[in-house]
Amino acid sequence: MQLRVLSLMEGGRSNGAIATDLGPSRQALDYHVCQLRVALDADSRPALVARAYTLGILDTRVWPPRAAVPPYQG
User: Fold this and answer.
1) Is 8 within 8 Å of 23 (Cβ atoms)?
2) What are phi and psi of 67, to 5 degrees?
3) What residues contact 33, with CB distance under 8 A and at least 6 apart?
4) 67: helix, coil or strand?
5) Quick one: three-class SS letters along 6-58?
6) What is this structure's pTM?
7) Residue 2 pLDDT > 60
8) 16 phi-psi bin (left φ>0, alpha ψ -120 to 50, beta other)
9) pLDDT tens, 4-49?
10) Is the Cβ–Cβ distance between 42 and 34 less than 8 Å?
11) Beta bridge partner(s), residue 67
12) Predicted confidence band of residue 69 (pLDDT cuts 50, 70, 90)
């Protein structure tokens, strides 16, 4: 879920729009974004996306943005 959130966030989508696209409640999505910010030590949404690129979580060679690692299929 968090990889999909990052990919949509990088494309400029708001939390509300991402929640609508992916299905969780707005509060659940806000929780995922908060967890991502803590995990990646980012103070803002732009910093979060930049950090994800720096760490290789988002692939810089494709558009629209996609996670560089395949999503968990558990």
Assistant:
1) no
2) -65, 140
3) 5, 9, 15, 45, 48
4) strand
5) HHHHHCCCCHHHHHHHHCCCHHHHHHHHHHHHHHCCCCCHHHHHHHHHHCCCE
6) 0.72
7) yes
8) alpha
9) 888 888 888 888 899 998 888 999 999 999 999 999 999 998 999 9
10) no
11) 58
12) low
Task: Determine the Cα angle at 60 with ends 56 and 64, to 5°.
Answer: 120
46: preceding bond cis by omega (within 30 degrees): no
- The pair of structure tokens assigned to 22 is 């992916």
Contacts of range 27-36, beta carbons closer than 8 Å, 24 or more positions apart = 29/5, 32/1, 32/2, 32/5, 33/5, 33/9, 35/2, 36/2, 36/5, 36/6
Compute the residue count for the chain.
74
Q: What pLDDT sits at residue 61?
A: 72
Residue 68 is encoded by which pair of tokens?
Answer: 């560089």
* pLDDT computed for residue 73 by the predictor: 55
pLDDT of residue 58: 84
**3-state class (DSSP) for residue 71:** coil
